[in-house]
């Protein structure tokens, strides 16, 4: 079966960076205050990766673009139904439910790092945006930053279970595709999509990388 490139290298690098940094943040957020500087730096890193991923969703390769995987809610619901009853339609990029999960993960992680920037333990550690907060913002940030990881862990568990479900039930090698980037073309309709296999746009990479590095440098320059 012919394989085509679906997840180009920026999507794959950003995916595994998100997974590594998120895991590091969960660990450092739960140990003690001694590793809080690591928690800060990893949070800055995750925010920069997400800024880059959102920009790449606008100016990136074919299957990385939001327009490729944001579907109408009715299509998403229909797809979910076919998934439960049997083999749903095959998508080369994200299927409608997978696309929805990507958006949910990106939004939830963004709220998580954004609230972290305003957060503080009121003793030693003050997030870089702490001084710009108000009582309301400090309280809301503290509460969201404490509670959202549980929601994120549930979303990530569902994300991994969905990937494993496709691997076991439909023998789709999705994990491998997030490593080498390629997926097999399974039917003639997809054959026509071959033309549009992921090609990495140099300008898109430069825009996403430069703006996210500028964001990271600015965060780094604020004392905490
Ligand atoms: C903290 C952990 C993780 C986070 C935050 C995360 C997040 C994401 C996001 C945002 C995407 C969309 C990729 C994109 O379009 O840029 C994605 C896709 C994907 N992830 Fe993860 N992920 C995590 C862990 C994992 C793990 C451990 C696996 C492997 C078991 C995995 C396998 C995949 C696969 C195979 C896809 C592509 C699914 C498809 O083909 O539609 N992820 N993940």
Total number of helices? 9
Q: Determine and state the CATH class.
A: Mainly Alpha
Low-confidence stretches: none
Biggest sheet character:
2 strands, antiparallel
Whole-number mean pLDDT: 93
CATH topology value: Fumarate Reductase Cytochrome B subunit
Our estimate of the beta-strand percent is under 5%
Organism: Rhodanobacter aciditrophus
InterPro entries: Cyt_b561_bac/Ni-Hgenase (IPR011577), Di-haem_cyt_TM (IPR016174), Hydrogenase_cytochrome (IPR051542)
Membrane topology: Multi-pass membrane protein
Protein name: Cytochrome b/b6 domain-containing protein
Structure description:
- This protein is an all-alpha fold.
- The protein has a single domain, classed as Transmembrane di-heme cytochromes, Chain C (Fumarate Reductase Cytochrome B subunit, Up-down Bundle).
- 69% of the residues lie in helices and 3% in strands.
- The protein contains nine helices and two strands, in the order βαααααααβαα.
- A two-stranded antiparallel sheet has the order 1-2.
- Helix 1 packs antiparallel against helix 2 and helix 2 runs antiparallel to helix 9.
- The model has no long low-confidence stretch (mean pLDDT 93).
- Protoporphyrin IX containing FE (HEM) binds next to helix 1, helix 5, helix 6 and helix 7.
- It is found in: Cell membrane.
- Pfam families: Ni_hydr_CYTB.
- InterPro entries: Cyt_b561_bac/Ni-Hgenase (IPR011577), Di-haem_cyt_TM (IPR016174), Hydrogenase_cytochrome (IPR051542).
- It is a multi-pass membrane protein.
- Its main location: membrane.
């Amino acid at each position: 079966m012919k394989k085509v490139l679906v997840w180009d290298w920026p999507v794959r690098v950003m995916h595994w960076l998100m997974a590594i940094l998120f895991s590091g943040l969960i660990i450092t957020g739960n140990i003690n205050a001694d590793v809080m500087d690591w928690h800060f730096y990893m949070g800055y890193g995750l925010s920069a990766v997400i800024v880059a991923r959102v920009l790449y969703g606008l100016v990136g390769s074919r299957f990385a673009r939001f327009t490729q995987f944001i579907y109408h809610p009715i299509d998403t619901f229909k797809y979910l139904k076919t998934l439960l009853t049997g083999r749903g339609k095959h998508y080369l990029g994200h299927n409608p439910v997978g696309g929805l999960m990507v958006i949910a993960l990106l939004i939830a992680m963004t709220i998580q790092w954004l609230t972290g920037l305003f957060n503080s333990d009121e003793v030693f550690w003050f997030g870089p945006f702490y001084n710009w907060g108000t009582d309301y913002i400090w309280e809301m940030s503290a509460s969201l930053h404490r509670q959202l990881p549980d929601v994120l862990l549930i979303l990530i568990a569902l994300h991994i279970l969905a990937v494993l479900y496709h691997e076991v039930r439909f023998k789709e090698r999705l994990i491998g595709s997030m490593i080498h980037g390629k997926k097999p073309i399974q039917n003639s309709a997809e054959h026509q999509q071959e033309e549009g296999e992921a090609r990495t746009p140099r300008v898109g990479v430069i825009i996403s990388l430069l703006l996210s590095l500028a964001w990271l440098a600015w965060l780094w320059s604020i004392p905490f």
